[in-house]
Amino acid sequence: MSSEVHFVVCKDREISEIPRTLIEEAFAGLLKEKGEDVWLLIYPDGSLGELHFGSQVGETTFSIDRPPACEAFWKATFDLLQRTPSVLLWPSGESVVAHPEARDQIPASITEAMGEPTFIRSHLEILQMFQ
User: Fold this and answer.
1) For the chain: N or C, fewer Cβ within 10 A?
2) pLDDT: is 59 or 99 the higher one?
3) Is the model's pLDDT at 74 over the cut of 90?
4) Structural domains of the chain, ranges and CATH numbers in brackets
5) Which residues contact 108 (CB under 8 A, 6 or more apart)?
6) What gap in Å lies between CA 115 and CA 110, rounded to an integer?
7) Which backbone phi and psi does 76 adopt, to 5 degrees?
8) 87 burial level (CB within 10 Å; 0-12, 13-18, 19+)
9) What is each CA distance from 61 to 45, 124, 128, in whole angstroms?
10) Residue 119 φ then ψ, to 5°
């Protein structure tokens, strides 16, 4: 897996925000501990992961260092992608969306840097992209 992926919520071609409760709902089965800027996740195999939240007011972004090959994690991430106009990015230049309106909401600076995101219909497509 890539060393880091970034989840960015977009609206009106700007980075936007969603309530953290939506993120908490999506990751409820994996959430071990919540801090202000870092949430600790525990995966079914007992390994740990972290969500690192950005600190800009009015923006919901988070990164995942060393994302796991854990299906439950990618189901939660896909759930958020489907429910919000957001994009998942990783350093290799790949990006994905799952919400029908997400492509039209992404800031030009992101699409110029990363290209047009791939529309996905399943969390398994994310896993395939990493293989």
Assistant:
1) C
2) 99
3) yes
4) 4-130 (3.30.310)
5) 13
6) 7
7) -65, -45
8) buried
9) 26, 22, 23
10) -85, 125
Q: How many CB atoms are located within 10 Å of the residue 18 CB?
A: 16
- Residue that has been written with the tokens 């957001």 in this structure: 86
Strands, E assignment, 12-114: 14-15, 31-34, 38-42, 48-53, 61-65, 86-89, 95-97
Q: Is residue 68 within 8 Å of residue 76, measured between CB atoms? A: no
Long-range pairs for 17-21: beta carbons < 8 A, 24 or more residues apart: 17/58, 17/59, 17/60, 18/60, 18/84, 18/86, 20/60
Q: Residue 55 corresponds to which tokens in the numbers above?
A: 């600190």
Give the type of residue at 18: I
Tens of pLDDT, residue by residue over 9-28, are 999 999 998 888 999 999 99
Cα(73)–Cα(7) distance, integer angstroms: 13
